[in-house]
Amino acid sequence: MARRKTHEKRLSLRSRPRRNRGSEAIRALARETELQPSDLILPLFVMDGKNRQAAITSMPGQFRMTRDRIVATARRAHGLGIPAVALFPVIKGALKDRFARESLNDSGLLQTTVRALKDEVPGLAVITDVAMDPYSSDGHDGLVENGRVLNDESVGILAAMAVAQARAGADFVAPSDMMDGRVGAIRAALDAEGFAEVGILSYAVKYASSLYGPFREALDSAPRSGDKKTYQMDPANKREAVREALLDVREGADIVMVKPALAYLDVIAEVRARVNVPVAAYQVSGEYAMIKAAAEKGWIDGRKAMAETLLSIRRAGADMILTYFALEMAETLG
Ligand code: PBG
Questions:
Q1: Cβ distance 213 to 58 under 8 Å?
Q2: pLDDT value at position 1?
Q3: What is residue 175's DSSP assignment?
Q4: Ligand 1 contacts CB of residue 114 (under 6 A)
């Protein structure tokens, strides 16, 4: 009797979207976006020394690690199906100068780490960051003169830096500096030095964001004066993102990146629609810190927030994601 009554109350609906959510089996079939370990790139902070690591306070679970530990962590990432790591060096204050000279040192921290990684985990791609800030006594991505960040003078230094990284064995170089014309200059310099096979993952669309704080703590690389607004983009702009991405593709970028990720999903979608190269997104240090902090307080489920935000970045159109969650996410998936 009761059953019949419910039946009588039924609406006559041709379309019931809930049918496609009725069980995990059907949900799996209807799922539009996939997230896999092979979509992830693990950023790593390398420091000088042996068999040591130092916690990064504002990034729970992340460490600055010495070369040997970096190699071990990279091996673990490779084993989990993560195709690449992105390296950032922690440079001692005494080695920093206005011109970021240490970045060209073939036996410097970054270059020796790249070599160690290519020797020990050859199947893993190594991506190196091209920007002056970790090496610069001014903490800017370019050369500072009279309080201004010079463009063309910086581009020359960045091109030399990219060549030094390629010589060490980097598979891809990733200019994160936002100077005009640097992708073309880097491409020309790499080609001239015999590195035509080394790719460029350009931070084409990088915003002047409040979400880089923990990263700057990790590298002690915050600008000593001023901010980065004369080179990094205004968060208000989307058309300009397309302009930057198209310019970098024209200059020879093999992959273009949008950064940060979660606050810029519309930008990722727009760039994806406008270029024919793969699009990367960077879930930056502040995005990681926010999820970890809320999870530590018990206010959100950290694992679920990790998976949901990464999936949303894929759904927006990113082909690959740089994320400090790469190991944790790959483990969860595996
Ligand atoms: C610097 C660089 C930054 C990041 C990557 N490369 C910081 C900045 O521009 O100040 C940020 C990454 C992160 O916050 O996770 N060239």
A1: yes
A2: 45
A3: E
A4: no
| Ligand 1 pocket residue status of 141, Cβ below 6 Å | yes
**Percent share of the chain, pLDDT over 90:** 96
CA–CA gap between residue 213 and residue 285 (Å, rounded): 7
Helix, strand, coil tally for the chain in percent (to 5):
45, 20, 35
What is residue 245's predicted lDDT score, i.e. its pLDDT?
A: 98
Q: How many CA atoms lie within 13 A of 16 on its CB side?
A: 9
pLDDT at residue 8 in the model:
72
Q: Is the CB of 103 under 6 A from ligand 1?
A: no
Q: Count other C-beta atoms under 10 Å from residue 308's C-beta.
A: 14
Ligand 1 atom at minimum distance from 285 CA: 15
Query: Measuring CA to CA, which residue among 64, 39, 43 is closest to residue 174?
Result: 43
| Ligand 1 atom nearest to 132, measured from its CA | 16
- Domain topology for 35-333: TIM Barrel (3.20.20)
Range 54-69 average pLDDT: 97
- 206: annotated active-site residue: yes
- Active-site annotation holder among 92, 96, 118, 259: 259
**What's the average model confidence in pLDDT over 304-319?**
98
Mutation pick for ligand 1 pocket among 284, 313, 322, 323 (CB with most ligand atoms within 8 Å): 284
Which residue's alpha carbon is at the smallest distance from atom 12 of ligand 1? 284
- Residue 102, ligand 1, Cβ within 6 A: no
Preceding amide of 17 cis, omega within 30: no
One-letter amino acid for residue 136 of the chain: S
**Mean pLDDT along residues 166-194:** 98
218-239 exposure pattern, b = at least 16 Cβ within 10 A, e = fewer = bbebebeeeebeebbbeeeebe
